[in-house]
Amino acid sequence: MSIGQATKMRLLELCEKNGLTINALCIISGVTQSTVNNLMSGRNNSITISTLKKLCDGLNIFIGDFFDSDLFRNLEQEIQ
Question: Using an 8 Å Cβ cutoff, are 39 and 8 in contact?
Answer without folding.
Answer: yes
